[in-house]
Specification:
Layout: E1 3-5, H1 11-26, H2 33-42, H3 45-53, E2 60-62, E3 68-69, E4 75-76
Helix pairs in contact: 1-3
């Protein structure tokens, strides 16, 4: 699996993956408003973009998935 450094263009997908991973790891029996609000406030595109631009951060991104865009413009595998 080839890895590369994250770029600003990766901020939204990285934030979405962070939410998915956090919820799947820590919330096994539903999501309360408290935890949902915390995850949505913590894992934002803007915060992820700022983290990506910090010089002391190394955020690898995988190049293993190819996403195509259908006629509707929606991504699909």
């Amino acid at each position: 699996m080839p890895l590369r450094p994250a770029s600003i263009a990766d901020a939204s997908s990285s934030a979405a993956l962070s939410i998915e991973t956090w919820l799947g790891t820590y919330l096994k029996h539903g999501v309360s408003a408290f935890f949902a609000d915390d995850a949505l406030e913590t894992f934002t595109t803007a915060k992820t973009a700022r983290l990506i631009t910090e010089p002391d951060q190394h955020i690898p991104m995988s190049e293993n998935a190819k996403v195509r865009t259908g006629s509707s413009g929606s991504p699909h595998a």
